Amino acid sequence: MTDPVATTRRGVLVSNDTATVDSEAVLDGLQAVIDPELGLDVISLGLVYEVHLAGETVAVTMTLTTPGCPLHGVIRHDVEQRLGAIPGVGGVDVQLVWDPPWTPDRILPAGRERLGWSPTRDG
Amino acid sequence: MGAMGGDNAVPFSLPARFVAVGALSLAAFWTGLAVRPDLLLGHPTLPGVLAVVHVFTLGFGASVLIGALHQLVPVLLITRLRAPAWGAATWATTCTGSLAIVAGFATGSRPAWLATGGTLVLIGATILLVNLVATVRRARRVDAVAATVLASAAALWGTVALGAAIALGRIFPWLAATLGPVRPLHLTLGLIGAFVLAIAGAGHKLLSMFVLSHGLSERPLRWLSGAVLAAVLLAAAAAWMPASWRSGTFAGATGTEWLAHGVTAALGVALAALIVDVRAILTRRMRKRTDVGVTTFLLGLLLFVPAWTLLAFGRTADAIALLLTGGLALAIGGMMVKIVGFLAWQHRYAPLVGRDPSGATTIPMLADMTVPALGWITAGCLLGASLVLAGVRLAHGGPAVPPPPEILGLARLAAIVGAIGGWSLVAHLTWIVAGRHRPRSAQTRADGLVAPAAAPGVKGHRA
Question: B102, B314, B324, B374: which has the highest count of C-beta atoms within 10 A?
């Protein structure tokens, strides 16, 4: 699903073969989807692998911190609702994948700080 | 995160009713002891002591464990519980049976009440076990964590079955003669096989998710399960080996004593494996700050160490007292706060998520479900009560010596502090389920940075 002009923004591989949907609005929408236990959004946690915009459809490939996560239904629903509300979006396709598995390395620096990591002490 | 609900979640009322009984039982346990503190120092076979012990083990420990098993096993196996409706039958039979057992002991060991209660609890445990086995048959894979938790469910059934057999043996002497001296096995299977194994297995999964710890080995958990199994088998051997071996002397000790040493050694291995496992989880954690529920759970695990030390020095009754009132109460109490918080959030707020993309509706975070001050009161009181009790028991000369007034006064003080802890847990869980939760956590900003916690004007997660 990745096209040759895909770019990585906010840790997410974004590819766009249409001009009808604003990819920044999609990333903002994903940034509003929050894991209620950790208090962090799915972008900061590095849970979103890829966003592909094709026509009016937004395809999101993402994962969760652990297989069998009980919040997967809630998070998936939240992603669909938030992205579906963006002007120009006609459909949202959320794929939950476990390969590659999520690792803490994917957490963005701001997310690490929120989890209590000191940039100087913990690296 | 999390591993307690989602699409495989059971109805909120199913685990909630078990947890409610559990919290009330813990509060009742300490309240009763505040009235009768002498029971804290009495001989473990006295009916009154057995009554309060069963308030704790059946009313608190087993009830919370059964509720958690209904919720956790389907999630660990990534499938649905075979028959959630059976949970009501399990609850009704175990509650009624537990009441009959406690009442039977409290009124002087009435055989008919004990036998009826034991049978009812066994029926409830059997319904649970059948439900879980049927659920396992739907699963594609059973990993070490799920296997450990399922083993604890099997141990719970075994404990209850032995208890029922012991109770029936009071009516049918031939049954008691056939069973042999199984009380130590009943104890080992329940405290270690059911409770400690469940705490270790569920704790491995839940703790690693709550503190966001990854890349963990399952090997310590396998060692722990193997060591617990060895301890149970040794206790079974002690119960059912020929009488000549039991009393026969080998290298200066009887067969029973050697097997008791073996049980202690096996539990030492289990404890070492638990320490290795928890240390690995905490070392690798991404979430540096631990909340009150997790801290309470860890305090409970910490008390496993002095409890085992007392056991190694032959102070078995004191070890059990510390394990029950400190280790298990704190570990289970801490997880109750986390689990009930999650369940209540799923029940009340999950349906609102994504419903209002405009952001007009705010949804609390899971951290907003709790009242940390109440959690710390619970943890502090339960910890204080167990430590004071341990000190009092060590200072006292044993159950054969009548306790002097100052020792009895300290025991009462421990019980009053414990009762405050128990009732604060009840109050906390009530708030978590029914309170008006106000978002106070941080939320992310659209620019990719994260707002600081408790920043002015931050109203939590917008729906």
Answer: B102
Residue type, B39: L
CA dist., res. B253 & res. B98, Å (int): 38
> How big is the CA angle at B66 (ends B13 and B227), to the nearest 5 degrees?
150
Q: Which of residues 336-365 of B touch A (CB under 8 A)?
A: 342, 345-346, 349-350, 353-355, 357, 359, 363-365
Tens digit of each residue's pLDDT (9 = 90 or more) over A85-101: 998 898 999 999 988 88
Best of B1, B289, B337, B345 to disrupt the A interface (most A CBs within 10 Å) is B1
B76: contact with A, CB 8 A cutoff = yes
* Closest by Cβ to A36, choosing from B210, B354, B366: B366
Greatest pairwise CA separation for chain A in angstroms: 46
Tally of CB atoms within 10 A around B200: 27
Rounded to whole angstroms, how far apart are CA atoms B87 and B18?
A: 10
pLDDT in tens, B101-134: 999 999 998 999 999 999 999 999 999 999 999 9
Is residue B37 a contact partner of residue B110, using CB atoms and an 8 Å limit? no
Residue B138 inside a domain? The answer is yes
* 8-state DSSP, B11: P
Residue B405 neighbours by CB distance under 10 Å: 7
Among B222, B414, B267, CA closest to B329? B414
For B28, the domain range is 1-146
Give A 12-51 residues with CB within 8 A of chain B.
Answer: 28, 31-32, 34-41, 43-44
